[in-house]
């Protein structure tokens, strides 16, 4: 029993950590000044087998919270690039499901002219080798948002919003169902449609290796209230009914959209669509034991544990 309990606690903790996280690059979080490559799941652009760029660093020059921030800057050993491939990339230990997810960061850019870089904040599925969505701050002071439609086309929208140098901005992407909303300082500036087939495996802060630098702080994954305060507005309850071998779910406001059930060792054993505020899930096909279930609405997702017996 102890072994099962320990495995369950580890799995449950891992799911929670991957689902909710804030990185402020502080020493208390295990970060040290200098090259970000290999620090706590971060990697930088490769330059060959086993070699990487070195100027994407944890810096104490500027921060919005604490003393440290991530600084991405031109690598002078290399020329400017056609695409924003230079930078620092964070690999999640457990992929983050798109539906109900939120990604945000504080960003400050130091240069805006013909010699400066375009800076990106993007969501990536590394396995598929594809971007999902991203913000672009271009060298002329414009903010664009881009979404991959999953069919080989990238939709690039001009938000009509401009940015200024040496100014902190909070940028946020919220994915609810197949809709992604883009926010700048809590104001929605664009929307788009994503394909939910691929989880988010990596987040990239990158540039095309021209001039200027960008500071990034308070990089958050599912660690803030959604724009509609869905967590506060919607209450959720559940119970397992042994006589019918069913898991009964109730959502006070929003209809549920999906449920995924995982075994104690992390294998997904059920994935089904939902459509109402009251749902009864038939579990007769599952063996007795402890399970984790992730239930999603259009606005958020919640992870629960239950005993099937």
Question: Descriptors for this entry?
Answer:
hydrolase activity, hydrolyzing O-glycosyl compounds, Secretion system C-terminal sorting domain-containing protein, 2 domains, disordered N terminus, Secre_tail, mainly beta, elongated, nine-stranded antiparallel β-sheet, 309 residues, signal, Immunoglobulin-like, 2 helices, Jelly Rolls, 25 strands, seven-stranded antiparallel β-sheet
SSE order in H/E notation?
HEEEEEEEEEEEEEEEEEEHEEEEEEE
Low-confidence segments, given as residue ranges, are 1-18, 227-232
Given the structure, what is the number of helices?
2
- Evaluate the radius of gyration: 21 Å
CATH T-level fold name of the largest domain: Jelly Rolls
Q: What is the CATH homologous superfamily assignment of the largest domain?
A: Exo-inulinase, domain 1
* Mean of pLDDT: 85
Strand runs, count: 25
The N- to C-terminal Cα distance equals 16 Å
Q: What is the CATH C-level name of the largest domain?
A: Mainly Beta
Domain module tally: 2
Architecture per CATH nomenclature, i.e. the level-2 architecture of the largest domain: Sandwich
InterPro entries: ConA-like_dom_sf, Secre_tail
GO molecular function, one term: hydrolase activity, hydrolyzing O-glycosyl compounds
Keywords: Signal
Protein name: Secretion system C-terminal sorting domain-containing protein
């Amino acid at each position: 029993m102890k072994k099962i309990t320990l495995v369950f606690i580890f799995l449950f903790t891992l799911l929670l950590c991957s689902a909710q996280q804030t990185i402020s690059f502080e020493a208390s979080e295990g970060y040290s000044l200098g090259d970000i490559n290999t620090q706590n799941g971060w990697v930088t652009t490769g330059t060959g087998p086993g070699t990487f760029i070195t100027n994407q660093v944890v810096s104490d020059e500027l921060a919005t919270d604490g003393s440290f921030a991530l600084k991405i800057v031109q690598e002078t050993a290399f020329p400017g690039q056609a695409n924003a491939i230079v930078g620092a990339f964070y690999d999640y230990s457990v992929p983050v499901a798109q539906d109900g997810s939120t990604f945000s960061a504080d960003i400050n850019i130091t240069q805006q002219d013909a010699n400066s870089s375009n800076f990106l904040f993007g969501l990536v599925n590394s396995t598929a080798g594809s971007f999902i969505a991203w913000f672009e701050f271009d060298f002329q002071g414009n903010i664009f948002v881009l979404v991959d439609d999953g069919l080989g086309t990238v939709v690039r929208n001009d938000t009509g919003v401009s940015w200024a140098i040496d100014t902190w901005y909070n940028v946020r992407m919220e994915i609810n169902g197949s809709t992604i909303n883009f926010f700048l300082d809590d104001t929605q500036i664009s929307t788009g449609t994503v394909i939910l087939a691929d989880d988010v495996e990596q987040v990239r802060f990158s540039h095309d290796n021209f001039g200027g630098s960008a500071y990034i702080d308070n990089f958050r994954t599912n660690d803030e209230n959604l724009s509609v305060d869905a967590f506060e507005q919607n209450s959720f309850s559940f119970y397992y009914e042994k006589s019918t071998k069913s898991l009964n779910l109730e959502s006070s406001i929003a209809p549920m959209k999906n449920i995924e059930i995982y075994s104690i060792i992390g294998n997904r054993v059920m994935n089904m669509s939902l459509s109402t505020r009251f749902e009864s899930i038939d579990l007769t096909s599952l063996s007795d034991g402890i399970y984790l279930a992730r239930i999603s609405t259009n606005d958020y997702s919640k992870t629960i544990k239950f005993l099937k017996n």
